[in-house]
Amino acid sequence: MTKKVTVLDYGSGNVHSACRALAEAGAEVELTAERNAVLEADGLVIPGVGAFSAVMDKLLEVSAPSLIDKRLTAMRPVLGICVGMQVMFEHGVEHGLDTAGLGQWPGVVEQLEAPTLPHIGWTKVEPDAGSTLFSGVEDERFYFVHSYAAREWKLDIKPPFIPAKLTWANHGERFLAAVENGPLSATQFHPEKSGPSGLKLLSNWIQSL
């Protein structure tokens, strides 16, 4: 049975490439911010490009925080991409501006300490063993375009709850490239621009819905 995936339509620039990649990976895709479609889809994708604060402003305009909360409370999967991953953290700091995020995860998104920024290009990642997203593409490279990232993971999950699966990458310093935390997953890179490896990752997510 084909899975229905809603891509949240809130003005982000990479929505159409994300929609095409998700369809190619096997999903029935709808681009919308309509409440019922967002809440009832098998999966919800939060894309994001640009500044943390601008993305948060646009998400607030379509009531995204409450919609995402409702989905996650009901254990309905959500996937954030690039800045769509960054806003899942408590706050982001860009050019001295500290902006509140969605607060799904503790921590801050800050500028990487690296010799060249932005970090643009194909980079190898290091997923935890047993990752669902990276099954079959554990040793592949993915396409990044960013200057900011979360550099540590602060969510302390105790048994019987299952710890998050974390994926790391390096550009000047170590940073989180992806997180799989119950129904909430996210990637700092762009799977929709990462060729066959990115399509495999999206397919893995779709099949898990």
Description:
- The chain has 209 residues and is an alpha/beta fold.
- It has a single domain, classed as Rossmann fold, CATH 3.40.50.880.
- Helices cover 25% and strands 34% of the residues.
- It is built from six helices and 14 strands.
- The protein is globular.
- The termini are close together.
- The model has no long low-confidence stretch (mean pLDDT 96).
Please name the fourth-level CATH homologous superfamily. Answer: Class I glutamine amidotransferase (GATase) domain
| Main β sheet profile | 8 strands, mixed
CATH class: Alpha Beta
What oligomeric state is this? single chain
What percent strand?
25-35%
Number of structural units classed as domains: 1
Assign an overall shape.
Answer: globular
The count of DSSP E runs of length 2 or more, i.e. the number of strands, is 14
CA gyration radius, whole angstroms: 16 Å
Q: Which regions are unreliable across 5 or more consecutive residues at pLDDT < 50? A: none
Question: What's the SSE blueprint?
Answer:
Elements: E1 4-8, H1 15-24, E2 28-32, H2 35-40, E3 43-46, H3 52-61, H4 64-73, E4 78-81, H5 83-86, E5 89-94, E6 97-100, E7 105-111, E8 119-124, E9 126-127, E10 141-146, E11 148-150, E12 165-171, E13 173-181, E14 184-187, H6 195-207
Parallel strand pairs: 1-2, 1-3, 3-4, 4-14, 5-7
Antiparallel strand pairs: 5-6, 7-11, 8-10, 9-12, 12-13, 13-14
